[in-house]
Amino acid sequence: MLKPKAIAQVLAQVNTAGVKATLLLNPDGSLISFAGWSEREARVLAAVASNVWFAYERHGRPAGSEVINEDGKESLQDLILECEAGKLCVSRASKMLLCLVADEETEWGLLKAKVIGNNGYAFVRHPT
Amino acid sequence: MAELDTLLDSVLNRTEHVKAILVTDKDGVILAKALHADSGAGILEPAFSATFSVASEQCGKLGLGANKMIVSTFDGDQIVQFNHSPLILTLLASLDADPGVLIAAGRDLAEPMRIVSETVAKTIQYEHKKEY
């Protein structure tokens, strides 16, 4: 059982060192919880992040290099997007997606480390 | 384009674990390429470059400005794609490669890519004018 209060608190802890918002969303793009930003902005971001994630999962790598995992699916581990005014990091967290938005000064490694660190939380690993 | 192929080849040879470097248009049509000897022909499939175009376009809706680069990490390999509109620079490498090295290699190619992109953009504009 997911604990919404606890999730929001954990997500809020990620919002340091240039990270502006952290979102936890379902694969279909619906928002589970978020910290930072307004709800309207978070919903738009969740929809776009989910869309880009699944586009990459389906067609993001060249044919012939697919590695099929135990579930019989190809696995996209993470996705980092750099824009003119910020960076976006999307990663799989159990059956959900974890999305971080940071400013353009934030280092790539820090962003990736935060995602890996957040995935280590029990609620993300074992959501049921 | 032969000069660009040579340049891509030199970057491929001096960067460890890189399987391929491609310059494509937004539909995935290849303009220049450098392939590692062990790379399969499937790498030249256009679909995955087109995915970058779609993702890049979607990013514009986030209010974070235009998309400059996307790094995607899969189970077996990682892909770094740079937006040099109307062209896309793609570096495909194994997971052993450091992403920072790939990004630096891509940035080394920024100036030649800018020159080629501007020429392609002008040619496209000229062709459009001729049509009307």
TrEMBL record, chain A:
Task: Cite the GO molecular-function annotations of the record.
Answer: guanyl-nucleotide exchange factor activity; molecular adaptor activity
Task: Mention any Pfam family matching this sequence.
Answer: Robl_LC7
InterPro entries in the record, alphabetically? Answer: LAMTOR2-like, Roadblock/LAMTOR2_dom
Region forming the signal peptide: none
Q: Which residues form a coiled coil?
A: none
In the record, biological process GO terms are: positive regulation of TOR signaling
What GO cellular component entries does it have? cytoplasm
Q: Which residues form the Roadblock/LAMTOR2 domain?
A: 7-102
Q: Which family does it belong to?
A: Belongs to the GAMAD family.
Q: Which PANTHER family match?
A: LATE ENDOSOMAL/LYSOSOMAL MP1 INTERACTING PROTEIN (PTHR13323)
Name of the protein: Ragulator complex protein lamtor2
Q: What species does this protein belong to?
A: Geranomyces variabilis
From TrEMBL, chain B:
Identify the domain of life.
Answer: Eukaryota
Q: What Gene Ontology terms for biological process does this UniProt record contain?
A: cellular response to amino acid stimulus; positive regulation of TOR signaling
Q: Which Gene3D superfamilies does this UniProt record tie to the protein? A: Dynein light chain 2a, cytoplasmic (3.30.450.30)
List, alphabetically, the GO terms of the cellular component aspect: Ragulator complex
Entry's InterPro entries? LAMTOR3
Q: Which Pfam families match?
A: MAPKK1_Int
Family per UniProt? Belongs to the LAMTOR3 family.
Q: What protein does this entry describe? A: Ragulator complex protein lamtor3
Write down the species: Geranomyces variabilis
Task: Give the gene that encodes this protein.
Answer: LAMTOR3
